[in-house]
Design brief:
The chain has about 280 residues and is α/β, with parallel strands linked by helices. The chain is built from 11 helices and 10 strands. The longest helix is centred in the N-terminal third of the chain and has 23 residues. The chain binds ligand C2E and calcium ion (3 copies). This is cyclic-guanylate-specific phosphodiesterase.
């Protein structure tokens, strides 16, 4: 609104100016990165806590910056979202993950891949709706939809839930499962579990980390596993950093897990070598 625009101007201080300039620099660099294909996906293995076998991986984007080296998503995803560049970047992520998945399948590895999708990508007004991008990527790479998973974060469900639900339903109707990321950290209430089309809960790593010596965290993790299973959802424990974390989640009947103790996110080639060696 005009009102808030004027206020924003009034509060536009020198220090903010500096921040804005820094952001604009990142935005420009990001536009160049999109054009020059400077992104790369790393894959973090996801294991079955029952068998210990790798069942798939989560695709995590990195920016191979020409001078700064490998840049992690926390320093550019927010800006990509604000500028709308996340749409193009997000399309690339889905396409690349499906290409890699096809390659793994061709080598006889029946793995899954999970991609992160941000709220901005779920807007119905998008020129290339994410559900269509996914449908195309699956078809072009001849991938069965149950091998692709879409991760969304709980907090983003707050804004525009109707649009969000409709987009998620479209994705799900393709046969692609929806994972609720960072479960427990957002602003959600349990009623989201009722209204949103969700197949899997990913328990945020902050709870796993705390669960070993904090009774409250432990109770929360145990409750989430019980609630999840009673709603016929699968559970993924995030941030398994020790054997103790692994054993703990396994003892609760948590279905899947990922974390540095199993493997850090690694380039596609290293991931496939890991899988082939374990076979
Ligand atoms: P996330 O989806 O919650 O991904 C998990 C993050 O935790 C990753 O950080 C991963 O490297 C890190 N992690 C995994 N295991 C452990 C562990 O045992 N201990 C600790 N301390 N950390 C662990 P990363 O790769 O830096 O990604 C950060 C966030 O950036 C992601 O959080 C996700 O929200 C976002 N992101 C990453 N790739 C994409 C993408 O392609 N699209 C979108 N929209 N967002 C992405
Ligand atoms: Ca994720
Ligand atoms: Ca997460
Ligand atoms: Ca996160």
């Amino acid at each position: 609104a005009k009102e808030s625009g004027r206020n924003a101007y009034k509060f536009f201080t020198a220090s903010m100016n500096k921040t804005v300039t820094a952001r604009m620099k990142v935005e420009l660099a990001l536009r160049r990165a999109v054009k020059n294909n400077e992104f790369v996906l790393h894959y973090q293995p996801v294991v079955s806590l029952k068998s210990g076998n790798i069942v798939g991986a989560e695709a995590l984007i990195r920016w191979q910056h020409p001078t700064d080296g490998l840049v992690y998503p926390d320093s550019f995803i927010a800006i990509a979202e604000e500028t709308g560049l996340i749409e193009t970047i997000g399309q690339w992520v889905v396409m690349q993950a499906c290409k890699d998945l096809k390659n793994w399948h061709n080598q006889g590895l029946k793995l899954n891949v999970a991609v992160n999708v941000s709220s901005r990508q779920c807007k119905q007004t998008s020129a290339t709706p994410i559900a269509e991008v996914i449908e195309t990527a699956l078809a072009e790479n001849d991938i069965q939809p149950n091998h692709l998973k879409v991760e969304i974060t709980e907090s983003l469900l707050m804004d525009n839930s109707k649009e969000m639900i409709s987009t998620l339903q479209k994705i799900r109707s393709l046969g692609v499962a929806i994972h609720m990321d960072d479960f427990g950290t957002g602003y959600s209430s349990l009623s989201y579990l009722k209204h949103f089309p969700i197949d899997v809960l990913k328990i945020d790593r902050s709870f796993i980390e705390g669960a070993i010596d904090d009774k409250t965290d432990a109770s929360l993790v145990e409750a989430v596993v019980l609630i999840g299973h009673s709603l016929n959802l699968k559970l993924v424990g995030e941030g398994i950093e020790t054997q103790q974390h692994f054993d703990y989640l396994q003892s609760l009947g948590c279905d899947y897990g990922q974390g540095y103790h199993i493997s850090k996110p690694i380039p596609a080639q290293a991931f496939i070598e890991l899988c082939l060696n374990k076979r």
